[in-house]
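tool_call: predict_structure(chain=1)
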Amino acid sequence: MIKKTFFMLVLLIFAIPSSISLGQETPEGPYYEVQSGDSLWGIAQRFGVSMTELAEINNISDPAQLKIGMNVIIPGLEGLTGKLTTRTVKFGESLKSLSRYYQIPVSLLARLNHLTSPGEVYAGYSLVIIENETSDLPYERMLIDEGQSL
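tool_result:
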């Protein structure tokens, strides 16, 4: 009886499809971690990709499959790896200053954001960046907020 139970348990373990895992692995390409309130359409808009392509590359047949904490691979950024996030550009920031702050080359920031000229970055612009998890940011930057002056 014990041998039969063990044998059935082994069969069950190997019968589970490889796409199902206990913990989600980090994808090889650039990815975004789904947050509360995200939708497939919203993520596609945020990263400038088509919703169809986003669903295809992530094997999502139903947009309701998105779960908080799920890693969604962002297509169109071949050769890049890491966690992508977005942030709003503040008044006084430029592509060059953001490049220095996040320690990301200007050319990579331009590629991530589908920019053709540095002048396309303005206050209020939603900028895509790769999170730098290995090192702390080099300094704290003081910026002028709305209603403030020098």
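agent: Strands lie at 30-33, 71-73, 82-88, 126-130. Proceeding to next step.
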